[in-house]
Amino acid sequence: MKNIVILISGGGSNMAAIVNAAKREGWADKWGARVAAVISNKADAKGLTWAKEQGIHTEVLDHKQFASREAFDTALTQCIDRFGIPDQPVLVLLAGFMRILTPGFVSHYDGHLVNIHPSLLPAFSGLNTHQRAIDAGCKFAGATVHQVTAELDHGPILAQAVVPVLASDTADTLAARVLTQEHLIYPQAVAQLLQR
Ligand code: NHR
Ligand code: GAR
Q1: pLDDT, tens digit (0-9, with 9 covering 90-100), for 153-172
Q2: Where are the domains of the chain?
Q3: Which of 125, 58, 115 is CA-nearest to residue 91?
């Protein structure tokens, strides 16, 4: 069994897309893969309610309870690894997870840590991507699934999707258009990783 742990901070729609794809496409039967847990750094993340309703194990690890990034990441590693299987690396998926992770955390999951970022990387790494794309006059925007490395939003690209930027767009309308594509490419990219 390959266990997947999903980290969220908010709505969790990408998490739901992955859980639904796993169910619909039979990832457990095909590749022995299952979403073992969803962990949020925010107690009020809406995605937690949905995950619980699906019978998925959920945990909250509030970063504000920790004195340093390192202390939080060490606790997060311990929490994630409880859902691992001996001799089988756990696949950790960031899905709207809003905390920058330390190099120690990244190297612990080296090659098994993936993020979806709401821009066409390498353009617009970091936060507030949709407003920045509009302000730059971009005609296209999109999302990128990438391996996570110590350098923020710079790991190898696994998948991208492109959407048009319309003259009438606000950050919210563009974000919604990008999000529909995220829900397609993130599960696809994860399925490709599981097949390897
Ligand atoms: N960590 C590493 N080492 N590398 C990456 O590529 C990472 C990462 C952690 C998260 C997601 C990312 C994104 O897709 C991600 C990629 C949060 C911030 C941020 O500045 C930036 C990028 C991403 C996630 N977070 C603030 C912080 O101080 C907090 C912001 C908040 O809480 O709202 O950690 O965009
Ligand atoms: C998604 O658009 C994701 O790409 C983005 O936040 C949204 C989360 O939505 N991630 C980041 O901005 C990471 N810094 P979701 O919680 O509904 O999946």
Answers
A1: 999 999 999 999 999 999 99
A2: 2-194
A3: 115
